[in-house]
Amino acid sequence: MVHSFLVEPGRWTLQGSWLERDSLPIPVKGKILVAWSRDDWFTMVMKLIFPESALEEIAQQYRGRLTSGDRQYTFVLQHSLLGRVEGEGWVAPDSIIQRYWALGDRQRRTGFETLYRLDEERYHLSSGIMTGHYLTSAMEATLQRQAISL
Is the pLDDT of residue 69 over 80? Predict the structure, then answer.
């Protein structure tokens, strides 16, 4: 089975839980748009909202390029919490794994994401943001591919 997330253009919804240190899980919802240009660059835009919380929405905008036989990629990211970010990812047989780090950040914030393929239309996302050596927030969610209407 081939990956449908990230390596193909598409629209996705996200639903799950956001966790912060010493707090109860907070419901999170989101939308993701993945697009590809003719020169093999991808753009991914993600927006997360917290409908039952006072947390502000999180917006992320990626731009990256697959290399090494379409198994590894690098990206830059504008993140509403972390600012300018760089990262790398690997496309494994059953998952997509990526890590990233905030540029010029005195707090030394970094993050990671693992997207495990459940089937062609669904992925399970597990992610976290660290400050130095400490996990400060995490998210677990299901991504569902949306049908594209013509």
Answer: no
Residue 1 lies in a domain: no
pTM across the whole model? 0.92
Are 66 and 40 within 8 A, CB to CB?
yes
CB 101 within 8 A of CB 107: no
Q: Are 46 and 30 in contact (CB under 8 A)?
A: yes
Question: Whole domain around residue 121: which residue ranges?
Answer: 10-146
| Residue 119 resides in a domain | yes
Residue 65 belongs to domain with CATH number = 2.40.128.20
pLDDT confidence tier of residue 68, bands split at 50, 70 and 90: low
Query: From CA 139, how far away is CA 150, in angstroms rounded?
Result: 33
Cα dihedral 101, 107, 108, 111 sign: negative
